[in-house]
Design goal:
The chain is an all-alpha fold and 492 residues long. It contains 26 helices and no strands. The chain has a domain of 68 residues. The N and C termini lie far apart (70 Å).
Length: 492
């Protein structure tokens, strides 16, 4: 029996490198370097989904492969693991480690549990909707950084103390997946929703030759976003769960909250630090015009998430003399180490796919579907941008697919700006990236907290199929069938 298990594990282990060799043997994946990128993607997804190797070790596959063959210079592969938003992620996670240390995370969790049904499926849907609405105006990475620690605190209260317990529990993992999907699904509702919306908004303005108002964008993108939110939220009720409730009644949670008493000095400081950093990130569009230049670099959100935790290292606790609000001991005990691997690996995989030309190869596969007829074109622009966002990132997909849509559909129906409706379609489809940890920063974050990547992949594919189908249906009705000028003509 033991040898049978070992044999199966060996086959699963070898499946990763085998997928790389298969990709290298297939000319349809483009030039050799692009084939390496596709092969690395398949290899990492296989190991993440099968869990045959620790997910932290899987994150090192691109470096391992580069040591054998220079599909990219090794230094460039190493640089791919570095991204400016890493400071934001690590800083936010460090602050929330202080939340756990001083009990504020427990207080937040109890407040949430008091207001939401103890039913696991209801909580899953609740987290999804909360994060989805927030992602209308905050980038997916920031939304996940805000809410994942609170969700984890609630799960810790339910008995899921570490990543392994959360990975192995369908109920706990579904909560984390709900945070990631919610953080992603509202990304195109406004131009503030994330990197993909910023890229798409800028490319649309450049195409039109003038800047459209935020409200014009929002009025067109919110309806389709709400359709997808309702559909995916309903889908999450059908995801398998290993328990129906997390236990406890509202009265029980209220009593537990009363036992905590009023907020301590340490809780207030750790909460204020996080609220200040998030507030500056959300309000940046308001003060950015007046804070330009090198002397104001420190006020940018990414820098603030580095500065604030550093300050907390020197703010003394009042209840525990000799300890700071944030300390090395707190970081060792409460900082989720996996996030130090998953987030950089997600970023690196996205950069490698773009730098080796794998993204360009993907866009070439779309060419036969362009301009055949409105229905087939609409289906292609609903499907292919979504597929690309799954295997690179939503932001990278926007940079590849939106210019392609503008170029290919510019003269659609003889209109001066015929590509406008195809920008709405492409931009929408890019945001429904749920399956792979590298697709958005949000997925990388919750993976670092113990979300089950196998569940995320399988149900993410189902959610993507549903989202793409509804995107196609929505724009078929508004653009092809009804021919609404609201979506066909550019905003004035």
């Amino acid at each position: 029996m033991e040898s049978s298990v070992s044999g199966k594990r060996l086959l699963l282990f070898l499946g990763g490198p085998a997928l790389l060799l298969v990709a290298l043997a297939m000319p349809c994946f483009g030039p050799l370097n692009a084939r390496f990128a596709f092969g690395i993607l398949f290899w990492m997804v296989w190991w993440w989904v099968t869990t045959v190797v620790d997910i932290k070790l899987t994150c090192l596959v691109p470096i391992f492969v580069a040591c054998f063959y220079g599909y990219m210079p090794l230094t460039k592969v190493m640089e791919a693991y570095v991204h400016k938003e890493a400071v934001l992620i690590f800083g936010a996670t460090a602050i929330t480690a202080a939340w756990v240390r001083w009990g504020f995370a427990r207080r937040l969790a109890l407040n949430f549990l008091m207001r939401v049904s103890g039913n696991v499926r209801a909580q899953t849907a609740g987290w999804f909707v909360l994060c989805a609405i927030t992602s209308f105006v905050v980038g997916n990475t920031t939304v996940a950084a805000m809410f994942a620690p609170i969700a984890v605190a609630a799960l810790m209260y339910a008995g899921y103390e570490n990543n392994e317990q959360r990975w192995n529990s369908k109920a706990a993992s579904n909560i984390l997946i709900a945070v990631a999907w919610g953080a992603s699904v509202g990304g195109m509702a406004t131009p503030l929703g994330g990197g993909q919306s910023v890229v798409t908004f800028g490319l649309l303005n450049k195409y039109l030759g003038y800047d459209i108002y935020f409200i014009d964008w929002t009025l067109r993108m919110v309806p389709v976003s709400l359709v997808i939110i309702m559909a995916v939220g309903a889908l999450m009720f059908f995801m398998p769960s290993d328990r129906e409730t997390f236990g406890g009644t509202r009265e029980f949670y209220r009593q537990e909250l009363d036992k905590l008493g009023p907020m301590t000095f340490e809780e207030k400081i750790s909460f204020f630090a996080f609220a200040l950093a998030i507030g500056l990130a959300v309000l940046q569009p308001l003060y950015a015009p007046w804070t330009k230049g090198p002397m104001w670099d420190w006020l940018k959100p990414t820098q603030m998430f580095c500065i604030i935790p550093m300050i907390l290292l020197f703010v003394p606790s009042r209840s525990c003399p000799g300890e700071s609000i944030l300390s090395a001991q707190t970081l060792r005990k409460f900082f989720p180490v996996t996030i130090l691997f998953m987030w950089p690996a997600s970023v690196a995989l996205s950069k490698i796919l773009s730098s080796t030309g794998a993204g360009a190869v993907f866009s070439q596969w779309l060419a036969p579907f362009m301009g055949v007829n409105d229905t087939l074109s609409l289906f292609a622009w609903s499907l292919f941008p979504n597929l690309l966002s799954q295997v690179t990132s939503d932001t990278a997909a926007a940079g590849v697919m939106v210019p392609l849509a503008i170029e290919a559909m510019d003269s659609w129906r003889g209109l001066e700006f015929g590509a406008v409706p195809w920008v709405w379609v492409t931009g929408s489809a890019i945001s429904w990236a749920y399956a792979v940890a590298s697709a958005t920063g949000a997925q990388g974050i919750v993976a670092g907290y113990g979300a089950n990547l196998r569940t995320m992949f399988v149900w993410g594919i189902i959610a993507c199929v549903l989202s793409v189908a509804l995107t196609f249906a929505f724009f078929y009705v508004t653009v092809v069938w009804l021919g609404l000028d609201f979506y066909i003509l550019p905003p004035k």
